[in-house]
Design goal:
Elements: E1 6-11, H1 21-31, E2 38-43, H2 66-76, E3 80-85, H3 94-101, E4 110-117, H4 123-135, E5 138-140, E6 145-147, H5 149-157, H6 167-198
Parallel strand pairs: 1-2, 1-3, 3-4, 4-5, 4-6
Length: 199
């Protein structure tokens, strides 16, 4: 019997005072009520990697950085991803792009979706992120959650919480349903490939 997929909720900003913890904890609380997947929070603060300056592309030689190796092992252990992302100058954070540059086969043929917040619900950042992940052989999904500036400012300035915007719960459930389906499907496909390669 196939084991439940492991899903990482990746916090992709590391700056002090970040807003990311609010939507991350909200989503994690929804996700952990499910019995069809195991979810964990993966915080880029725990992986302080230097700027990517490897001598060779990772396709040809492994990284020599111990933190990057730990990051790669964590990503390899997961079957799907939710990137919690802000929008910096219409794109993703530098620390997230750097972290993705340290990945190669660890993330191949796995699904990813997104929780964006800020201006335009981080829609432009997410579109950039989709393009990056396509190059890394990641299946990005349609259903996402976008927390707009109105909701974000309501929480930052007016003492509101995600509970004041319950419509996001429905988007989150749809997103998680989709992600778990894809995580199971692609996990089965990867397992078939491994069996075929071993034969």
């Amino acid at each position: 019997m196939q084991t439940r997929p492991k899903i990482g909720i990746i916090i992709s900003t590391t700056r002090p005072g970040r807003f990311a913890d609010v939507p991350t904890n909200w989503l994690f609380n929804i996700a952990k009520e499910r019995d069809d997947a195991d979810f964990e929070i993966v915080d880029l603060r725990d992986y302080p990697m230097p700027f990517f300056e490897e001598k060779l592309p990772l396709a040809y030689a492994p990284t020599q950085n111990e933190v990057a190796l730990r990051w790669q092992h964590k990503i390899a252990s997961l079957d799907g991803y939710i990137f919690v992302t802000a929008e910096y100058n219409h794109s993703i954070t530098g620390v997230l792009k750097n972290a993705l540059d340290y990945l190669y086969s660890e993330i191949h043929r796995k699904p990813a979706t997104f929780l964006g917040y800020g201006s335009a619900g981080a829609a432009r950042a997410i579109e950039h992120l989709r393009n990056i992940l396509a190059e890394e052989h990641v299946a990005t999904l349609k259903n996402t959650v976008h927390i707009g500036m109105v909701e974000m400012l309501g929480m930052l300035r007016e003492g509101k919480s995600m509970a004041d915007y319950p419509f996001h719960d429905d988007f989150a459930k749809r997103m998680l349903d989709d992600l778990v389906w894809w995580a199971n499907t692609l996990k089965e496909g990867r397992s078939r490939d491994e069996i075929a390669e071993a034969a």
